[in-house]
């Protein structure tokens, strides 16, 4: 029931925020810093099934004061005849983006969970 409500909400133009850089023991294994990490596929599945868009975001601290810049990056969602491959591609692309951001500003990232467990 909840999944259907979420899908309907997004189809009607609603926006949904999902934390995607967490360990998901049932997730899709995709490369993250050279090692497969089980990754949540929900954002990719929702976007693929509803025609929704994916906007990735990060908050970057500026200096030592409490000043931050929020950056957004749209991730194009393929819509080929192979939905499963599209979901895999999007999930891997999201993870690559996180890896790029971590490499760019490693001091800005903290995980309190085991990403590769």
Please give a handful of descriptors for the protein shown:
117 residues, alpha+beta, two-stranded antiparallel ribbon, 4 strands, 26% strand, globular
Descriptive overview:
By secondary structure, the chain is an alpha+beta fold. It has helices spanning about 1-10, 40-50, 85-105; strands spanning about 25-30, 35-40, 55-60, 70-75. The protein has one domain (about 1-110). It contains three helices and four strands, in the order H-E-E-H-E-E-H. A two-stranded antiparallel sheet has the order 1-2. A two-stranded antiparallel sheet has the order 3-4. Helix 1 (about 1-10) crosses helix 2 and helix 2 (about 40-50) packs across helix 3 (about 85-105). The protein is globular and about 45 Å long. The mean pLDDT is about 90.
Structure at a glance:
The protein is of the alpha+beta class and 117 residues long.
Gyration radius from CA atoms, angstroms: 15 Å
Mean pLDDT value = 91
H/E order of the elements? HEEHEEH
**Helicity range of the residues?**
25-40%
Give the helix tally: 3
Number-wise, the strands total: 4
Sum up the overall morphology in one term. globular
Given as residue ranges, the uncertain stretches (5+ residues, pLDDT < 50) are none
Beginning-to-end CA distance, first to last residue:
30 Å
Largest sheet: 2 strands, antiparallel
Please, how many domains?
A: 1
Q: What kind of assembly state do the chains in view correspond to?
A: single chain
Query: Pairing-aware structural class of the strands and helices?
Result: alpha+beta
How big a fraction of the residues is strand?
25-35%
Record the strand order, biggest sheet: 1-2
